[in-house]
Amino acid sequence: MAGLEVLYTHVAGSISCPQDAVLCFVHWEMITSGYRCLGSGDEPRSTDKKSELLPADWNSNKELYTLRYQGKDSNAQLLLKAIAVDSTLIFNVMTSSTQQVSDLTVNISDHVDADQLHTFDSVFKDVASLSEKVKTQLLPSQGRPVGRKAEKKSQRDKEEEERQRGEDSDPLRIPPRHPRHNTPPHWPPGPMVPPFAAGGADLDPFGSRGGGGMIVDPLRSGYPRSGFDPSSGIPDILPPGAVPPGARFDPFGPVGRHRPGPDPDHMPPPGYDDMFM
């Protein structure tokens, strides 16, 4: 953690409470993230200048710390405030250009030993965890300053994203009916072969491609026919012409005038036990 010891040693004479030590650590994280301190207070002053050091009156108020920062190589400005509440220190950082606010609550005793305030090697505890919290919660990546080239690239990416979003949300924009590079599938003529035979009867119900089809027609089933023509009528059942020539016809009873009676080998009705029947 290069630089933290130099910073802490420089302000050690003015550190009088644990929250001073926590604020010193957060200030160091701001510096290593690319910011420089302009001064204390909410409003700019004529004496403001970018510096890695803390201003002379940085901890004059032990209940409310207020510091202003600006990017080392950019105009991005942040306003940092820390409020002491019981055993915690609540940080708020506001980006001046966007008014975006981030916050972090630090339990002081988890990261500072109050009995070792003037011994740098012992004053801080679990610095890795505190550093991670500051970077991810208090200084989100979109708020960190970047170089000019990165800023230009980011601006181009943002404009391109807004343009694409505008096209997608345009209610008058008509999307293409078919994808440009896709063509409809080609279905080969003739009977289907596995594994595409499944469902083929649904696509060809009459079996015009050589398959069986899905419509059952006794007169077109492929089995040998008896020569029966339903269009000529069925005696005692249908008059001639009741069935149009060539129409599908499902027989609903025995064909012919004389209907055969029961066969002696037919099984008797259920529960009938008369052996002399």
TrEMBL record:
Residues 185-194 have a biased composition (Pro residues). Residues 148-171 have a biased composition (Basic and acidic residues). GO terms for molecular function: endopeptidase inhibitor activity; proteasome binding. Residues 135-277 are annotated as: Disordered. One of its GO terms (biological process) is proteasome-mediated ubiquitin-dependent protein catabolic process. One of its GO terms (cellular component) is endoplasmic reticulum. It is found in: Cytoplasm; Endoplasmic reticulum. Plays an important role in control of proteasome function. Inhibits the hydrolysis of protein and peptide substrates by the 20S proteasome. Also inhibits the activation of the proteasome by the proteasome regulatory proteins PA700 and PA28. This is Proteasome inhibitor PI31 subunit. It comes from Myripristis murdjan.
